[in-house]
Known about the structure:
The complex is a heterodimer. Helices cover 0% and strands 42% of the residues of chain A. Chain A is mainly beta. Chain B is built from no helices and eleven strands. Chain B has strands spanning 5-7, 10-13, 19-24, 31-37, 43-50, 53-56, 65-68, 75-79, 88-95, 105-106, 110-114. The radius of gyration of chain B is 13 Å and the shape is globular. The interface between A and B is medium-sized, with 21 and 22 residues.
Amino acid sequence: AQRVTQPEKLLSVFKGAPVELKCNYSYSGSPELFWYVQYSRQRLQLLLRHISRESIKGFTADLNKGETSFHLKKPFAQEEDSAMYYCAPLSGSARQLTFGSGTQLTVLP
Amino acid sequence: NAGVMQNPRHLVRRRGQEARLRCSPMKGHSHVYWYRQLPEEGLKFMVYLQKENIIDESGMPKERFSAEFPKEGPSILRIQQVVRGDSAAYFCASSSVQDVNYGYTFGSGTRLTVV
């Protein structure tokens, strides 16, 4: 079955430490992958997409087809990065986004 | 461009009543998606609609839930005879035909509380 897995429900790091939020997928072919972020009580926002290979707010994510992973990384976490992060592949004939269960990142002072 | 507009922001219903959630997509967007976020859980896909068509409703509960996206007006997610387990945040997203590969734009959500 096609699915996306975010193995960590909760992740805490100290300010200034590196952070990596894991995402593994099991979709056939080459899904397009996104990371979305949801700050407390705000709407879901697009953080970055793998097709554009961009860096937003210091975050990057590399698609590793061999490991079928799309981990989100930031070298130096900031307190304002505390939020819920969702990995989401866009796939299938209907081209819909399917979200992982999310990882709640807390950056401690 | 006002973005994706959802209303109401908060909705309280008694068990057995009907809940109607509205979503106006971004201007120029013809694809609408509904997601549900239960407390302490992630986003679950419910339904994908285009104007006057349901494209994929694989995430919709079999009973009491329905969705439409008429030619004119907002998309409506309708929940009949609500139960406590329907309490959740319901998010709508939209995209255009051209931009679907670039992700969706989400609304602020409707928080439904069933008492």
